[in-house]
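Box 3.1 A note on notation
Throughout this textbook, protein chains are presented in two layers. The first layer is the amino acid sequence; the second is a token string describing backbone geometry. Keep the layers aligned when reading.
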Amino acid sequence: MPPVGSVLIGDRAFIHQARRVRKRFGGGMRQAGMLAAAGLHALEHHVHRLKDDHQRAKRIGDALAVMPWCARVMPVETNIIIYDLAGGRSAREHVAQLEAGGVRCFAIGPAQVRMVTHLDLDDEGLEQVLERLQRIHR
């Protein structure tokens, strides 16, 4: 799911024009209640286990930090892992390679990748991710 919120800064005329363009392209959420319901469910049922997501993310970040094809891992403080690829590697190709092995992630720059741990990633899944990262060659 793409990000839901956004911030737009500009004068009144610019904001007005941006809103018109957004509407032309189908913007204007009619299903915001569905997203709100999902958020409420998460707050009511899953906050206690967020630390598990954060710990799993930290393990992935630590594993990435020693990979020869990884140039840098941003500090992992939550369930989000962002890393830069080394040696001119393409993030799109890297993501495709991981996807072929069952690991979903996103290219967020030409050589930058974002991973997120979540409710559906258990310890067994974490071990599979770590093993698949080990299989990637320079």
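Residues 50-65 form the longest helix (16 residues). The chain has two domains: 12-45, 49-135.
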